[in-house]
Amino acid sequence: PFPEVMTRILRRLQPELARHGDPVELPNTCLVNYYGRERRPDGRGPVDRARLSMHRDAEPGPVVMFSVGQPAQFEFVEPDGDRPHHSQWLRDRSVVVLSGPEYKDRLYHRVTRVRYGPEPLLRSQLPAFEVRRVSVSFRYVPARFIRDLGELGDDARAIALPYVRELALHSAHYG
């Protein structure tokens, strides 16, 4: 379950989402993405991990995204093109709701730039990674697609386990 404050925020959004024709189920999953710079072990320049490639989210219904950290240029792009249909800077603590047939289902979205600045300072427990922006997105995933790690097949478990182990090293929420 989500913390009560998040549940209250998501419930407040339900009427707005219903006006767009999206399902009124509250999101039941949360995806947290960290964007920033990764320092290379060989000492060469850092690798930019702050941008996000053009994509669409596949879950049914809306995606409620909170952007925290440095401002990010968020763009909606036509499926057959590269020029932005709509572009907007997301500031620290911005909320974006991807909803409806136009912005959720037809157009792609991406982050092309993330500004540098002294505030807000986001800390990372990963020694070789400087966090510049965090995206916290709430989504509805039908129960039939949700599995415990132990229920995954061998190939899927082999992909997920290194990530889960890394999370467990740096978080009190994984064990």
Tally of alpha and pi helices: 3
Order of helices and strands: HEEEEEEEHEEH
| Mean pLDDT figure | 85
> What radius of gyration results from the CA coordinates?
18 Å
Q: Ranges with pLDDT <50 over ≥5 residues?
A: none
Query: What is the global morphology?
Result: globular
Query: How many strands appear in the DSSP assignment?
Result: 9
Q: What is the percentage of strand-forming residues?
A: 25-35%
Distance between the termini: 18 Å
Description:
It contains 3 helices and 9 strands, in the order H-E-E-E-E-E-E-E-H-E-E-H. It has 175 residues and is an alpha+beta fold. Strands 2-1-9-4-7 form a 5-stranded antiparallel sheet. A 4-stranded antiparallel sheet has the order 3-8-5-6. The protein is globular.
Write the layout of secondary structure elements.
Blueprint: H1 4-19, E1 29-38, E2 47-48, E3 52-55, E4 63-69, E5 72-77, E6 84-90, E7 94-98, H2 100-106, E8 108-114, E9 129-139, H3 154-170
Antiparallel strand pairs: 1-2, 1-9, 3-8, 4-7, 4-9, 5-6, 5-8
What's this entry about, in short?
With 175 residues, this protein is of the alpha+beta class.
Key terms:
3 helices; four-stranded antiparallel beta sheet; single chain; alpha+beta; five-stranded antiparallel beta sheet; 23% helix; 175 residues
